[in-house]
């Protein structure tokens, strides 16, 4: 073999050896994770639902997306099983995606978020109590602008409703966080749309909002002193109520009452 031939062979051998280092072996590549089964199909919109997912190659999963909402609170049981706590999410059905390495993989699994049980806080419960006290005794609503008075008879007390509370809390929090005061959200959503989105199937709905009132007693007094708010509060068309209160914004505190009557 000539000197030139030996150089060519040596050069090819060097490239072949270099190639062994550049090409990843199958063990170095991230195997595609799959999710075939979830122990629950319905999760609480408030968050906290525990879900066990089974599939393949789940050890490398670092995050799970519920729609666009990401959570990294994952417990890896094995390569074929993991446990995850569903994050908060607006009501509706979302697809699950798995994050492994630098890639995100869409699965066939879907989770439907619904509002479950939301108990009133002490402040919200006091608003409900004071509202019902006025309803049970009857009230005369006064419109000072037109010097109109409407005497409304006693009506049945309102029952607490979790879905209405979810909508009310969400709106108060949104107003406080984004520093505005309106029945229409910054994204253009109306109060009836927010209530519908919370999963409440209604035949009648209404909303009272207020800002700057420091206590439940003062805010209910303020609503009763306002003709339109007073008529909402005393309306026999409504049978259920949700209340939400949040702090922040220029007013310091924001209140929402969402009234409803379920569809029969």
Strand content: 35-45%
Question: Radius of gyration in whole Å, from Cα?
Answer: 29 Å
Terminal-residue CA separation: 96 Å
Low-confidence stretches: 11-28
Q: Could you say which structural class the secondary elements and strand pairing correspond to?
A: alpha+beta
Put simply, the count of helices is 6
For the largest beta-sheet, the strand count, sense and barrel status come to:
5 strands, mixed
Task: Please state the overall shape, judged from the principal axes of the Cα atoms.
Answer: elongated
Strand element count: 15
- Elements, N to C (H/E): HEEEEEEEEEHEEEHHEHHEE
**What average pLDDT do the residues reach?**
90
Question: How do the strands line up in the largest sheet?
Answer: 2-9-8-4-5
The helicity comes to 25-40%
Task: Describe the model.
The chain is of the alpha+beta class and 264 residues long. The protein is 29% helix and 37% strand. Helix 2 packs parallel to helix 5 (216-224) and helix 3 crosses helix 4. The radius of gyration is 29 Å and the shape is elongated. The model is unreliable at 11-28 (pLDDT under 50).
Key terms for this structure?
264 residues; alpha+beta; 4-stranded antiparallel beta sheet; 6 helices; elongated
Q: How is the secondary structure organized here?
A:
Elements: H1 3-22, E1 34-38, E2 42-44, E3 50-56, E4 61-66, E5 69-71, E6 74-78, E7 81-85, E8 92-100, E9 103-114, H2 122-137, E10 139-143, E11 148-152, E12 159-160, H3 162-178, H4 191-197, E13 202-211, H5 216-224, H6 227-234, E14 240-248, E15 252-262
Parallel strand pairs: 2-9, 12-14
Antiparallel strand pairs: 1-3, 3-7, 4-5, 4-8, 6-7, 8-9, 10-11, 13-15, 14-15
Helix pairs in contact: 2-5, 3-4
